[in-house]
Amino acid sequence: MRARYGLPLKITAGITAVGAAGIAYAAGIEARSFRLRRITVPVLPQGMRPLRVLQISDIHMVCGQRKKRAWLQSLAGLRPDFVVNTGDNLSDPEGVPEVLDALGPLMEYPGVYVFGSNDYYGPKLRNPARYLLEKAQGRHGLNGNAPAVGVVHNPWEGMRDAFDAAGWTDLTNTRGRLKLDGYEIAFTGLDDPHIRRDRYEQVAGGPEQDADLSLAVVHAPYLRTLDAFTADGYPLILAGHTHGGQLCIPFYGALVTNCDLDTERVKGLSTHWAAGNVSYLHISAGCGTNRYTPVRFACPPEATLLTLTSRD
User: How would you label 191-208 residue by residue, b for 16+ Cβ within 10 Å and e otherwise?
Assistant: First the structure.
């Protein structure tokens, strides 16, 4: 009997050990291995000096995450020209004070922001396999389903008020501007398409002609919003939401994006075409996770420093 069952038992034990080690690495090491992505995007008019833009996204703050808070605070040392926060700051209804503590040094710089679904609603425990099922069925977010009911409502209003008081510009289905060294930077933002709060008709019309640069900002990069921004002629769209796939396969990449975007563009810089126009698209993999799935694999948490330079 030992000879017959010894090998399978060893294999089973080995698989279990490898799985446990993978989970321990994904939760205990990679999820806390914060990185800074640096990219250059040629979108400025000729003669305009380069601009350094810090994009932060998907913090998903949970009370007690001291390392994440310290890392976010340290990003102020990059001295960006302005900050873009693409939402999902919370994963804990009690987390607003810790978000504001983490972002306090960055709020000394000009900034703009949009919110994501997890700013409005607390997270729910769900089977991660449902993301694969929803992808197969073509279902993402609400997409025609009933609005969220029976969920925790986060105290996002206090966070919004603190951002506003610091001088950050709220881009919730609206436009805004920043003045930097005599330059006018215009922004067009949307509320989160993942929960169908986007209202593009309220901001349609394309870049502002009297601005030196116009940028588009949204939390979840759903194709309907990317198509609208690109068709209207925005040179650069900034988004988050995807977590870069969060659990990726080495040498293959992401399995899901949690929206209708293809996995090839789940994070980093790419392009988007619509109505004969092309826009640069940058998607941050974010620096946090849902509190119920605090793991990352082959997809470390990040923020991005974008250097905007002159077009060729």
Answer: bbbbbbbbebeebeebbb
- Tokens 């126009």, residue located: 277
- Which residue type does 141 have? G
Where do runs of H (alpha helix) occur along the chain? 2-28, 66-74, 96-103, 117-120, 129-137, 156-165, 223-231
Burial 261-278 (b: 16+ CB within 10 A, else e): bebebbbebeebeeeebe
CA-wise closest residue to 282 among 29, 57, 72:
57
Helix (H, G, I), strand (E, B) or coil at 293: coil
The one-letter code for the residue type at 73 is Q
Instruction: Extract the tokens encoding 264.
Output: 């090839």
Instruction: Return the pLDDT at 42.
Output: 98
DSSP 148: P
Q: How many CB atoms lie within 10 A of CB 115?
A: 26
**Are the CB atoms for 212 and 206 separated by under 8 Å?**
no
Q: What was the pLDDT predicted at 312?
A: 77
- Which among 216, 198, 300, 195 has a CA at the least distance from the CA of 258? 195
pLDDT of residue 143: 61
Quote the Cα angle for 119-123-124, to 5°: 155
> What residues of the chain score a pLDDT lower than 70?
1-28, 143-148
Alpha-carbon gap, residue 109 to 202, rounded angstroms = 28
- Cα separation, 288 vs 35, in Å, equals 12
Instruction: Give the C-alpha separation, 268 to 249, whole Å.
Output: 17
Structure tokens at 162: 């603190």
Judged by DSSP in three states, 122 sits in coil
